[in-house]
Design a protein that fits this description.
This protein is of the alpha/beta class. The strands form 3 sheets. Strands 3-12-11-4-5-10-6-9 form an 8-stranded mixed β-sheet, sandwiched between helices. Strands 1-2 form a two-stranded parallel ribbon. It is built from 9 helices and 12 strands.
Amino acid sequence: TGKIAYAGGVALNVKLNQRIIAMSGVKELFVQPAASDAGTAIGAASYASQLSGVPVEKMEHVYLGPAYTTEQCIEACEQYEQPVKWERMNNVTAETAKILADGNPVSWFQGHMEFGPRALGNRSILGSPSHSGVADRINAQIKYRERWRPFCPSMLDTVAPEILQTDHPSPYMTFTFDVAESWKSRIPEVVHEDGTARAQIVTQATNPRYYSLLQEMEKLTGNGVVLNTSLNRRGEPMVCSPTDALNMFFGSDLQYLVMEDILITK
């Protein structure tokens, strides 16, 4: 068929995956995002399902974790151990895009938590990739990661073929792609020194709010792209609940936290 799927720790080697895609005869490579040792459990469950006569359905997205309402987010703020300054937003994606376009990192918490190790727009720290130094600000405020480790982009499916020079799917940040020369200077904060990016291509069907945010960024900056890294402090797991998000927020130097329909500031 020309299509390949595989799991296991090796499948998170995004550079190797790029080379496999480039092989003659390979039309499409599928790597599910929890392709660590957790992939063994998924494979065993899939095998058992098939044996039981229940065909395995195609994975369309990984937004399979807990979700919280705006009211639950407000309740977490009201019950928090210290005063929390919050306000309701009239247009969440437009107002968040303005904060990002001004060069500020934003903690972004919405919808169902992602399955797997990658933040894919529901438990993320975001930045404007066209602002030089925003990756350093995120490092200084929370991530403290080695600067040689690149930050990654999420982008609209409408611009991805132009940026990545391919129409290969990439919903889970499991591949790198060569960034088009014309885009390297437009989104420098998410292009690695070798000219590649480990990209997430976002579709409206799977994540409408995140897609809307990217559309608002495109209106403001001309680029339907954001820098996207996981919502956590170094050495800690990704944030799940509103209280987790508040703990992380007040344990860092980040200035903006969007949780569903509310904006929390310091």
